[in-house]
Amino acid sequence: GDSIITVQLTEEDKVEDDVVFYLVFTGSTVQHCTSTRKINPGSLETISPGHDCCETVKVALCASREGHPILVVAEESFQFVQDEAYDAAQFLASCAGNQQALNFTRFLDRSRPPAADVDFLDEKVALAFRHLKLPAGWNVLGADQSLTENIPRETLMHFAVRLGLLRLTWFLLQQPGGRGALSIHNNEGATPVSLALERGYQKLHQLLTEEGAREPDSWSTLSHTLHSGDYSVKHHHGLDVYLLTAEA
């Protein structure tokens, strides 16, 4: 999701300014509707929705005008593919509580990728995590809930904080076990909170310690999402377009 889609209109579709165009994506279990922004009389822009699975969906370009029926101007297929960020999110989700796998992820820390790469990784993996179908009962601390906070171990929260992944940390905080992970020490005696402080991640430390800390802004383009039952509405500030997602 969150890629820019450009729609080129044919000559006969270039109509009056009071016509509103939008795209409808119909998947197997989820449907999305996006508004569009007119770049010029022949071109529209919008944002691709984040989908819940890798599949080919039907996308319809619709036109709406007050006092007239809605018209389907064109139809096309649109393919959601599995990328590296999705693979990484799936791997990390399966690593929850797996000490061997979590210790392996510490190799990433030794290379210390540049800040721009960290920002890109954070945004893409956090976005992919949002659209993963996490199994029922999934927990940041893993499946074994009998372990106490006094047992030293690595957690997904240690991983996210160690690399400075602000948005992924926020996502994990909202999941079962997220807050509990903040007080768990690893084998070096570090908690996620102390790691953030030690590495000078001020925003991350504030996110972990301040009451009422808000979701960090997106790195590339600011957006805001509201959820209500089976529906969500996302406003993309950059293009000033809206995305409605509904479970079929």
UniProtKB/TrEMBL annotation:
<dbReference type="GO" id="GO:0016020">
    <property type="term" value="C:membrane"/>
</dbReference>
<dbReference type="GO" id="GO:0035023">
    <property type="term" value="P:regulation of Rho protein signal transduction"/>
</dbReference>
<dbReference type="GO" id="GO:0015629">
    <property type="term" value="C:actin cytoskeleton"/>
</dbReference>
<dbReference type="InterPro" id="IPR051632">
    <property type="entry name" value="Rho_GEF"/>
</dbReference>
<dbReference type="InterPro" id="IPR036770">
    <property type="entry name" value="Ankyrin_rpt-contain_sf"/>
</dbReference>
<dbReference type="GO" id="GO:0071875">
    <property type="term" value="P:adrenergic receptor signaling pathway"/>
</dbReference>
<protein>
    <submittedName>
        <fullName>AKP13 protein</fullName>
    </submittedName>
</protein>
<dbReference type="GO" id="GO:0005078">
    <property type="term" value="F:MAP-kinase scaffold activity"/>
</dbReference>
<dbReference type="GO" id="GO:0043123">
    <property type="term" value="P:positive regulation of canonical NF-kappaB signal transduction"/>
</dbReference>
